[in-house]
Amino acid sequence: MISYFFRLLGSVLFVSWIVGTLVFFLIHLVPGDPVAVMLGDWASPADETVLREQLGLNLPLWAQYWKFISGVIQFDLGQSLFFQQPVSELIAERFPMTLQLAVMALLVAVLIAFPLGLWAALRAGKWPDHLSMSVSLVGVSIPNFWLGPMLILLFSLWLAWLPVSGAEQPFSWILPAITLGTALAAILARMLRASLLEVLHEDYIRTAQAKGLPGRLVYGKHALMNALLPVVTILGLQLGTLLGGAVITEVVFDWPGLGQLLVESIQRRDYPVVQGCILVISVAYITINGLTELAYAWLDPRIRVAN
Amino acid sequence: MLRYLSYSIVVVWLLMAILGFVIGESANEVVLSQFLTGPNAQAWLGSDELGRPVLERLVLGAQTSLFVAMGVVFFSAIIGTTIGIYSGYMGGWTDRIITKIIDVFLAFPGLLLAIALAAILGPGIENVVFALVVVGWVGYARLARAQTLSLRHREHILAARSLAVPMPWILWRHILPLILAPLGVEATFGVAGAVISEAGLSFLGLGVQPPDASWGSMIKEGTRYLLVAPHLVLAPGIALMLVVLAVNLIGDQWRDYLDVRSRKSNR
Fold it and tell me: Is the separation of the CB atoms in B110 and A272 below 8 Å?
């Protein structure tokens, strides 16, 4: 287990390094001069030279790369051009909000997916199955940048039950969490149904039924517990995806998280912040995936042995 | 029933995209007196904040989404399949390096990479296609590689090799036809993904730029007038959802059709 952990840690660090390198070269090697883009069409050559020096863009590429990587290791992501403040400070302010949104969305997804998936699996082939699978297909197909405004229209503007945007009070957390969680709920419900259907054909379920256990125990304990393993993996992997998907939801609801900072910084051409946000979200995503794999290996010894 | 419905939605989508060439510039005509009017006899779906007819904007948006979807699926399928087949067939070091590259791409949140690329390249429909191809090829590569691995020791491949058939010809003539079906299913879901991603990027202001229409940017503009003119958000949103739903349904059908196990159990 310990050697597995270290191998996984190595892999997480390796991929993070690749991602960092990718982000760096993305910003530096793409055709077009970032300084010209940042300052717009009317900047004087003198202004451009000043900004170039300020950003260290006058150095040779390898020196810039070295500066960037050694900075990242010390949690120094450079200085924001717009806020005149270290990027790491800005990110530290916003990251907890994004994490909160993602965790809440995960909660919403689980609360919707479990009853839906269970219902569908236990009535497989009958109308509850068709109904819940149709609902989940619609759930997968609704883009969150449309679902969000629709929820706002219904619950905030017409019914006036919930606030339109912001994150100050718990009431305003509900709509963003539902918006971000719906697609995941739909995916999870389908996974859970498929996984349960597979388990329900196993011999030990027939045994449990044959010895006269009540349905509650057969399905709740014997079937569900065994069907959960693949679902838990997906759950972990999806938490990372939620961090990425949060970008759009944050913009819709004016949620003060990392995604909103990223989009605003793109519009302001604040490249150090853009670079930092992408790096942090990616590394968080990679780390969460690594942790999920670790949890999975702990739950299922076969994985450890196979690796 | 549902099958015909989903195919008809896709056909309507295609027709709308073709109709876009006919409508052309008239969809961008600003008529300020028609500012935010609701659906009426002249403009069936009402007008937007510049008095432009929503229905015609919707048609232009269909063109944008179809163009992006076709471009993304076409290029990512070709690039991904080529890399995947090659990697799976060669095996050894080549395969190990390519697999590692695929893993790195999979370890990166796709939407975020697309946002980053679109942000750096600047807005524009070609850049959207490029960004989504960079994200999208991995799925095809992984699938093509896995399928090729299972085929590579088959007798007909061995026969072709002992007859000194050149490697590209083996890949093209003896492996590709056998793995086309699952790749086709992947491509169908790829269309749905590309349509949503294009609209998402345009929603964030990173896709097509005004006055060109995209369903995503129409939703974005519409949210500002949500209370007074909900039709601005409703129309493109419903169009988007119907297309994605229809394509997903078609993908599901094809997958079930190809999956022999599920075909048996349904009988």
Answer: no
pLDDT of residue A98 exceeding 70, the answer is yes
- Collapsed DSSP state (helix, strand, coil) of residue A79: strand
**Local confidence band at A198 (pLDDT 50, 70, 90 cut-offs):** confident
| 3-class state of residue A86 by DSSP | strand
**Of residues A240, A303, A236, A297, the one with CA closest to residue A15:** A240
* A266·B223 Cβ contact <8 A: no
Confidence of residue A203 (pLDDT cuts 50, 70, 90): confident
Do the chains contact at A142 and B223, CB–CB below 8 Å?
no
Which residues share a beta bridge with A86?
Answer: A79
Q: Which residues of A touch B206 (CB under 8 A)?
A: 266
Give CA–CA dist A32/B167, Å, rounded: 39
* pLDDT, tens only, A41-97: 677 778 778 877 777 777 777 888 888 888 888 888 777 777 878 888 888 888 888
End-to-end CA distance of chain A: 10
**Separation between Cα atoms, residue A263 and residue A274, nearest integer Å:** 8
Neighbours of A210 (CB within 10 A): 8
d(CA A260, CA A258): 5
Residue A270 structure tokens? 């604040």
Q: Which of B216, B226, B236 sits opposite A153 (nearest CB)?
A: B226
Provide the residue count of chain A: 307
How far from the centroid of its chain's Cα atoms is residue A83's Cα?
A: 26
Q: Which residues of chain B have pLDDT under 50?
A: 264-267
Q: Is the ipTM of this complex over 0.90?
A: no
CB atoms within 10 A of CB A204: 12
Give the best residue of B1, B99, B201, B203 to mutate against chain A (max A CB count within 10 A): B203
Q: What is the pLDDT of residues B169-205, one digit of tens each?
A: 988 888 888 888 889 888 999 999 899 999 988 988 8
What CA–CA distances, in Å, run from A106 to A119, A290, B184, B258? 20, 18, 32, 33
Domain ranges of chain B: 52-262
On whether the CB atoms of residues B132 and B198 are closer than 8 A, the answer is: yes
Contacts of B196 in chain A (CB under 8 A): 143
Q: Which of A37, A140, A150 sits opposite B237 (nearest CB)?
A: A150
Q: What is the pLDDT of residue A220?
A: 74
Residue B114 in contact with residue B199, Cβ under 8 Å?
no
Is 0.95 topped by the overall pTM? no
Residue-level pLDDT at B82: 94
Q: Which residues of B sit within 8 Å Cβ distance of A?
A: 103-104, 107-112, 115-117, 119-122, 192, 196, 199-200, 203-206, 216, 219-220, 222-223, 226-227, 230, 233, 236-237, 240-241, 244-245, 248-249, 252
Superfamily of B52-262 according to CATH:
MetI-like (1.10.3720.10)
Residue A257 — pLDDT band, cuts 50, 70, 90?
confident
Q: What are phi and psi of A213, to 5 degrees?
A: -65, 145
